Amino acid sequence: MSWILLLLAGLLEVGWAVGLKFTNGFRLPVPTVLTVSAMAASVFLLGLSLKYLPLGTAYPIWTGIGAIGTVAVGMVLFGEPVTAIRLACIGLIVLGIVGLKLAT
User: Fold this and answer.
1) Total number of domains constituting the chain
2) Using 50, 70 and 90 to split pLDDT, how confident is the model at 36?
3) Which ranges constitute the DSSP H helices of 1-28?
4) Structural domain containing residue 45
5) Confidence band, pLDDT 50/70/90 cuts, at residue 101
6) Contact predicate 19/63, CB 8 Å
7) Which sequence ranges form a coiled-coil region, renumbered to this chain (predicted)?
């Protein structure tokens, strides 16, 4: 269950990171409320997952999910460049996440 909570926390991190783009500097109320809510929910779920997972494993995986998801959304929704070096870096993050999961 802790791993599921951590995955959901990571997905919410993607949501709030992307949501920041739509807040217009926190000037638009609805995107701002949604973004801040996703931030709070993400950190809350991360905290719950830390009851059973080591901090040194859970936190990097949380940030890795957020980083990979945010880069992917940027490429798909915002037309950000899809280059070999960006894909290789994503692959390295994935390898790190898998390694941390296997080490726990």
Assistant:
1) 1
2) very high
3) 2-22
4) 2-103
5) confident
6) no
7) none
